Amino acid sequence: MDTQQMLYEGKGKKLFVTHNPDEVLVEFKDDLTAFNAEKKGSEQGKGALNCEISTAIFELLAQEGIQTHFLKKLDSNHMLCKKVEIIPIEVVVRNVATGSLTKRLGIEDGKVLPFALVEFYYKDDALGDPIINDEHCRILGITQDMSELDFLRAQARKINDVLSAFFIERKLRLIDFKLEFGKDSKGNILLADEISPDSCRFWDKDTNDKLDKDRFRQNLGSVKVAYEEVLKRILQK
Ligand code: TMP
Ligand code: ASP
Q1: What is the pLDDT of residues 164-174, one digit of tens each?
Q2: For 30, what's the count of Cα atoms within 13 Å in the CB-facing half-sphere?
Q3: Which residues share a beta bridge with 16?
Q4: Separation of alpha carbons 235 and 227, rounded Å
Q5: Ligand 2 atom closest to 198 (CA)
Q6: Ligand 2 atom 7: the closest Cα is on which residue?
Q7: Which of 26, 59, 118, 234 is deepest in the core (most CB within 10 A)?
């Protein structure tokens, strides 16, 4: 792997070129970061868990007609993906108020929202990923085609419907999650990045125990155990 040229290193993953210009190799790292990387840590085996969890979720979404960048899992912490240009928007879907939403708007933590809230954040670490609306996207030149934002919203809602139903059958509440999308060489918009306990909040249906990266963010301990539990439940038939 290390002879290949690295295209990009993010907080949770590395991207490498492959012999095919339309494909990239994605390596899931064991690193954990929070609060725009002010808090850093590592959990051995976390990368492999996220790779396996993301694989299962991308496969599920593909079956439901959602186009994603995922091609195949190669080994414990590597997957082959279509090369995309990431749209610099983090699309967050919230079913239950927690995290930054409760802080920003004073909504009670744990309140079930009357409908799934879709938000856009500008993917820019230097600015701390600020929340933005459609007009900000246009002014920033992220897109001039407003129907693209409508498409992202519709995809996010469909993904939420599929995943919420899938997880509740496994006794997990999908509280909120973050998606990233990218454009392939033909201009198709594909779901990209990862879907894992790094990018989602999962609460146990019966106890509301947190089974996601909040265990790291809030120093709750047992981070890897929680990710293993999410994988175990995903693999349940
Ligand atoms: P927030 O409540 O901190 O805004 O997070 C909303 C959701 O987005 C939550 O599931 C965690 C996820 N998320 C990321 O994946 N990356 C990030 O950088 C942030 C801030 C949140
Ligand atoms: N992924 C972000 C970071 O490192 C924030 C988070 O997920 O809380 O810094």
Answers
A1: 999 999 999 99
A2: 6
A3: 6, 25
A4: 13
A5: 7
A6: 34
A7: 26
Which DSSP string do the residues of the chain spell out, in sequence order? -TTSPEEEE-SSEEEEE-SSTTEEEEEE-SEEEETTTTEEEE-TTHHHHHHHHHHHHHHHHHHTT--BSEEEEEETTEEEEE--EE-SEEEEEEEE--HHHHHHH-PPTTPEEEEEEEEEEE--GGGT--EE-HHHHHHTTS-S-HHHHHHHHHHHHHHHHHHHHHHHTTTEEEEEEEEEEEE-TT--EEEES--STTTEEEEETTT--B-STHHHHTT-S-HHHHHHHHHHHHH--
The pLDDT of residue 2 is 52
The token pair at 112 is 């079930």
* Summary mean pLDDT of the chain: 97
Q: Terminus-to-terminus CA distance in the chain, angstroms?
A: 34
- pLDDT on residue 237: 77
**pLDDT tens digits for 129-156?**
999 999 999 999 999 899 999 999 999 9
